[in-house]
Amino acid sequence: MAILETSPNPAPNTRLPRTVWLLGWVSLFMDMSSELIHAVLPVYMTSVLGLSVVVVGLVEGLAEATASVLKAFSGALSDRLGKRKLLAVLGYGLSAATKPLFPLASGATEVIAARFIDRIGKGIRGAPRDALLADATPEPLRNAAYGLRQSMDTVGAFLGPLAAIGLLWWLHDRLRLLLWFGVLPAVVAVGILVFGVREPANLGARSAASRGKQPGVDKAPRFAVVRSLPRPYWGVVALAGVFTLARLSEAFLVLRGQQQGVPLLWIPLVTLLFSLVYAASAYPAGVLAQRYGRRVLLMSGMGVLLASMLLLALPGMPALWLGVALYGLHLGLTQGVFAAAVAAAAPQTLRGTAFGVYYLISGLLQLLAGFGAGWLWQDFGAPYAFGTGAALAAGALMLAAWQSRARFG
Fold it and tell me: How many CA atoms lie within 13 A of 212 on its CB side?
């Protein structure tokens, strides 16, 4: 089965299920809440709390790794229980509960703790949510479904920084008061999930049946059957892993903007710009992947990331803003497509586990990438950090080309 190559002929019925749209709205409001806070958090950590860039990179990497480890367990648990929504509600609810901790914090320890707890919530919800979306969507529509959810997620990521700019102006740069405004959208997101989203009624029956058919699965964790995931799945995971190493996190883009002289009031424009491009490109990318194949979109995204990293290594505002825009475009071209490739590669009854392992490996590599980028930035300068990202992006592009011939046909 070719995972990165999909049929060029989409199904006649292109209407996305109601669940896809509702999960999109959940993502929109939660990301609006998160990005309103995170648009100023890196600057707050370095300028107000006095943390080094290495520490910021390590905190970001550790937070994402924590989320990813929990995604692995929550994905396996959602397969076992057949209760995707329950775990998604738990994860989104925990993230919403952490939002007041940011404005209540009195020092670095509290901010870092709030960041970790928020990522724990993300880790719990991610794999069950993606598996729930796959369960509710026919295979021919999954590229578009993941693209739509990713696009709405990124619209929220666009609205958050936009609100942050207005609030910074209105509140005269009072960051603590600004952070309180991130609480309301998170509450709305949880409400939509709890009262609007319905889980497919036959999922629990399918999971129970599969446990009866697979020896030992009812007594052992789902990780006992990780080895049964097919080789094409591991090819997707390997490609995503190299790609993850190439990407500097959004926090480094914000810090690069500050380093290049962007005033505090306009710092959220960095997040705003790449989120806008991301939102505009994610859904079309899913549709194009269905038409032209996932390999084309993924390789295009890797080339765009390569260009973005090179531009961000250069001095000057034009290179900064173009590099940030291309960063958003590369996310739109790749993130939803990677998720669709994972869903296509995994058996339905192991889909939560497959997403969990995918997120686990990606998160551990994000930890390595965050620490490495912070160390390069602090000891050698930002151009070296972004230049290394460009070199790794070139490596990912070559690996994608090799895999498309040798493994994915």
Answer: 6
pLDDT score at 270? 92
Q: How far apart are the first and last CA of the chain?
A: 9
Top-ranked range on mean pLDDT: pick from 61-75, 250-264, 276-290:
250-264
Question: Which tokens in the block code for residue 226?
Answer: 């990780």
Look at the chain and count its residues: 409
Are 365 and 244 a contacting pair, CB within 8 Å? Answer: yes
pTM > 0.85: no
d(CA 75, CA 112): 25
Give pLDDT tens digits for 270-287: 988 988 888 788 778 777
Q: Which residues contact 42 (CB under 8 A, 6 or more apart)?
A: 56, 251, 254, 255, 258
pLDDT at 322 > cutoff 80: yes
Take residue 322 and report the two structure tokens written for it: 């173009």
The residue ranges of every structural domain in the chain are 18-197+229-406
pLDDT in tens, 182-229: 999 999 999 999 998 887 765 554 444 444 444 333 333 455 667 777
Q: Count the alpha carbons within 13 Å of 379 in the hemisphere toward its beta carbon.
A: 8
What would you report as the CA-atom Rg of the chain, rounded to the nearest whole angstrom?
A: 20
Tell me the two tokens of residue 249: 């996190």
CA–CA separation, 16 and 138 (whole Å): 9
Burial code of 34-51, b = ≥16 C-beta within 10 A, e = fewer? bbbbbbbbbbbbbeebeb
Answer for the pair 78, 87: CB distance below 8 angstroms, yes or no: yes
Can you tell me the mean pLDDT for 315-320?
A: 94
Mean pLDDT of the chain: 81
18-197+229-406 has which CATH code?
1.20.1250.20
